[in-house]
Amino acid sequence: MTRNTLSLLSTCPGERRFTQSSGTFGISRGAVGLRRVLSCGIGFAGILLASTPLYADTRYPRSGSAFDYADVFTVPIPPPEKDQLLKASDEKQADALTWFIAGQLLEQQGELDSAMETYRKSLDLDPANYLLAEKVAFELMRREQSAEAIGVLKDCAVASPKDARPRVTLAFLYSRYLEKPDLSRKYADEALAINPEDIALYQRLYEIHLAQGRTAEANAVLDRALKSKSTNASFWIELGALLTDLRISTGETEPNAAAVKSITAIFEKAEKLAPKDPAVFENAGDFFARIGDLPKAIAALEKAVDLNANLLSARQKLAQAYLRADDPENTITQLQEVIRLNPLQQGAYELLGQLFQAKGDQKQAAAAFEQSLLLNPNHKESYTQLAQIYLGPDFDDPNRAVTLMEQAAIQFGDDVQIQFLLAIAYSSAKKYQEALTVFERTDVLFSEQSGLEKNPFFYFQYGAAAERAKLYDKAAEQFLKAIDMDPNFHQAMNYLGYMWIDRSENLEKGGDLVKRALAIEPNDGAYLDSMGWYHYRKGDFDQALDYLLRAHETLGENDPEICNHIGDAYQQLGDTGKAVEFWELAIDHADAPDRIDVESVNDKLEAARQRLTQLQEQKAKETPATEKPELKAE
Questions:
Q1: For position 623, what pLDDT does the model report?
Q2: Contacts of 522 by beta carbon, 8 Å cutoff, 6+ apart
Q3: Shortest CA distance to 168 belongs to which of 141, 199, 145, 144?
Q4: What angle do CA 526, 491, 597 make, to 5 degrees?
Q5: Helix crossing, 42-50 with 24-39: angle to 10°?
Q6: What is the DSSP string of 286-333?
Q7: What's the rounded Cα separation, in Å, for the pair 217 and 226?
Q8: Cα(493)–Cα(510) distance, rounded to whole angstroms?
Q9: How confident is the model at residue 48 (pLDDT cuts 50, 70, 90)?
Q10: Is the pLDDT of residue 536 over 50?
């Protein structure tokens, strides 16, 4: 043991003092002092240790005596009564506990070698202490001292002939690290003889045989378990779970019929033994879910949660079973129960958000994703799902989407998906220059990052942002890239075609693009409007009005842009009254200021109303007083 380790030495009650020992002998004297305290009552030692600082106090001088120690108590006390003393048979146990405590103190100080030496002294006195023997054995294995590790466990096994645990650990070490399957099997058999209802032992023995290629012997171990006369429901529950893992492959479409029958019988036996134990039904549910029998899985898991409404693991499994059964409503119910039992389970919020999103409840979905993000700010999918919801029609909150994606961009850097959504959010928030900057950066990222492929939708969004920024040549470039990548991308065809038609440039190319879009989607109101506007620009107002009215009828609503176009067509055809009617509709439904130029439409309306007034006055002058004037718009 190293010098300068902490010694706690006690001779009598009173003041606590600490000194540094001068090597192993000092800690030995300290251990004896601790044992003396223990002999007065184990509980007091716990209080003493709890208040002991893990450092040496050098304010007190060394004693200078042959033994370096300090008195714990300064006031002498009379010896304890006889009935307070440990029995003679327990003296070794007290000494072993003393060394164990001393070892813990040394380990907490980082004195691992000294702690191991002290632990070994504790085991010399009490070799049956399995937990300490296991701790020491694995540390010795780590130090590649396998012979000593095996010796510690063998001593523990001899000292505790009715404890299967040291034999299980010996079987594990011989099998996993020392590659001695015969010895591993020997100790596993011994453990099983001691505790024939420990399923872990059957599993260990099964694995040992299997590792040796002894399949028949491995299966015989499981058959031995199946023939057990145990009346312990837990034994059958654990055996059923083990056989499910060993004999039923996950996702297996046609599981072995004999295995299914055998495992079903096991859970039926467990249910008879413990009909009120939710573990029976939870594990049965696992089994039925594994073989794809979802109705039985759901029934078993429902029974488990009926017996224990707060059984979190069963709730989680039930949610998964309902999800696999394509039952979103019951999945949502179970996920909400999971969250009630564990409000910090981020995955439950994430799945809940996806389910609400799928059923169209975007507000509930957003709330779930927000909670998911709060619990795990590093979860990229929560950012992307939320941004898409806030950009959608239910929220139409692009500024919130921008804030989210700016945070995500800081968190995930040059992630292409994050940058792409950030660009879309900027564009939706009418921050077109910021959007174009991010689109350009994302275009470069696509080129730099291997394994990523650009898609036409990227260029479509890029083009739309450029068009809104009035960079029409750049917009056309991006739209053409999208169409080149997907010759059936009718949205890009219509957007570019209408842009050219509206600007009276590339009129025939624009018309051809709109015709191609209509060939794919002949009843799309926006495309019909574009074709009507193409004919309007060409001066064919009758055909223009025909397409525009079809567009209005197809949409079934008063779209302000289409109403404005219809008003223009009627005006060109000389029907000012109808023109006024549709321009007024355009103004009344212009909820989005960028859809139409409201000021321009108002100017047209004012001029048309003045003209109608003039026509009515002129008609009144031309009509005799005995005739009623006929007010007809021209």
A1: 66
A2: none
A3: 199
A4: 45
A5: 130
A6: HHHHHTT-HHHHHHHHHHHHHH-TT-HHHHHHHHHHHHHTT-HHHHHH
A7: 14
A8: 8
A9: very low
A10: yes
Task: Give a three-class secondary structure readout of 209-274.
Answer: HHHCCCHHHHHHHHHHHHCCCCCCHHHHHHHHHHHHHHHCCCCCCCCCHHHHHHHHHHHHHHHHHC
DSSP state of 81: P
Per-residue model confidence (pLDDT) at position 110 = 92
How far, in Å, CA of 152 to CA of 158, rounded? 10
The pLDDT value recorded for residue 251 is: 63
Distance CA 282, CA 310 (A): 13
Average of pLDDT values for 347-363? 95
Task: Judge contact between 217 and 193, C-beta under 8 A.
Answer: no
* Structural domains in the chain (count): 1
Report yes or no: 376 and 357 within 8 Å, Cβ to Cβ: no
Contact yes or no for 483/467 (Cβ under 8 A): no
Question: What is the per-residue pLDDT for 499?
Answer: 97
Whole-angstrom Cα distance, residue 495 to residue 461?
11
Q: Determine the residue type at 254.
A: E
Query: What integer is the mean pLDDT of 462-481?
Result: 96
What amino acid is encoded at 188 in this protein? A
**How far is the CA of 172 from the CAs of 149, 223, 239, 535, 619, in angstroms?**
12, 22, 20, 84, 109
User: pLDDT band at 614, cuts 50/70/90?
Assistant: confident
Does a structural domain hold residue 453? no
| Structure tokens, 152 | 């510690």
Q: How far, in Å, are 9, 33, 105, 128, 388 from residue 91 at the CA level?
A: 18, 14, 21, 15, 72
The predicted pLDDT at position 532 comes to: 97
**430 Cβ neighbours under 8 A, 6+ residues apart:** 398, 468, 594
Taking the complete model, does pTM exceed 0.70, yes or no? no
Q: Helices 278-290 and 312-324 sit at what angle, rounded to 10 degrees?
A: 30
Written as six digits, the tokens of 434 are 């910021």
C-alpha to C-alpha distance for 514 and 491, rounded to whole angstroms: 9
Determine the residue type at 33: G
User: Taking the C-alpha atoms of 338, 344, 350 and 356 in order, what is their torsion angle to the nearest 10 degrees?
Assistant: 50
Q: Answer yes or no: is 266 within a domain.
A: no
The pLDDT, as a whole number, for residue 528 is 97
Residues in the chain: 634
Enumerate residues 6+ apart whose C-beta is below 8 A from 443.
454, 458, 462
Q: Residues near 163 by Cβ (< 8 Å), separated by ≥ 6?
A: 128, 130, 156, 157, 194
Taking only the tens place, the pLDDT of each residue in 393-435 is 888 899 999 999 999 999 999 899 999 999 999 999 999 999 9
Instruction: Place 94 in a pLDDT band, splitting at 50, 70 and 90.
Output: confident
Q: How far is CA 368 from CA 323, 336, 364, 385, 525, in A?
A: 17, 10, 6, 10, 36
**CA angle 269-285-353, nearest 5°?**
165
pLDDT tens figures, 554-580 = 998 889 999 999 999 999 999 999 999
Residue 114 maps to a domain:
yes
Q: Which range of residues forms the domain containing residue 99?
A: 1-125
Does the residue 504 lie in any domain? no
CA distance linking residue 159 with residue 174, whole number of Å: 20
Q: What's the pLDDT tens digit per position in 200-238?
A: 889 888 888 888 788 998 899 999 999 999 999 999 999
In angstroms, the CA 447 to CA 442 distance is: 9
| Sign of the C-alpha dihedral computed for residues 523, 525, 526 and 528 taken in this order | positive
Structure tokens of 185? Answer: 């099997």
- The Cα–Cα gap between 257 and 126 comes to 51
Structure tokens, 7: 């010694």
Residues 185/208, Cβ–Cβ less than 8 Å? yes
